[in-house]
Amino acid sequence: MTHADFDVIRRLLWESGTWAFVGLSGNPDRTAYQQAELLQQRGKKIIPVHPSRAEVLGEPAYATLAEVPVPIDVVGVYRRTSQAGAVVDEAIAAGAKAVWLPLDVIDEAAARRASDAGLDVVMDRCPAVEWTLRHRK
Questions:
Q1: 36 belongs to a structural domain
Q2: Which end of the chain is more exposed for a tag (fewer CB within 10 A), N or C?
Q3: Residue 83 forms part of a structural domain
């Protein structure tokens, strides 16, 4: 099953407002930081979700998705594949509208659970690359 639908990717990149990045630390060398910074620069509200951070990219961080006090449009799952399923389950429980699993984070069972719960799913895709490819309206 593919989770790279052109229309879903485009909608999430252009129409979503709030992205929670699970695994977002303060390390600018990490992919999650770079992707969150890019989306923040493009007008998205970034919510860092990391148990040991107080703030990232000028935004308050939360230890879990359940603690995020605002509606979440997209959950970026910046954890290892072995941990992705648990994060997807948290995203479903938190009422997120979509989950985005970046390059090389592939969990078909978790993607199916998210889809079955009504969430949009993008998997094995990079927001920065997709932004460049899909930037043509």
A1: yes
A2: C
A3: yes
pTM of the entire structure?
Answer: 0.94
As a whole number of angstroms, the distance between CA 11 and CA 35 comes to 17
Q: What percent of the chain has pLDDT over 70?
A: 96
Distant-in-sequence, close-in-space partners of 66: CB < 8 Å, separation ≥ 6: 90, 93, 94
What's the domain range around 40? 6-49+71-134
Residue 10 lies in a domain: yes
Residues 48-105 have pLDDT tens digits of 999 998 899 999 999 999 999 999 999 999 999 999 999 999 999 999 999 999 999 9
Q: Is residue 63 part of a domain?
A: no
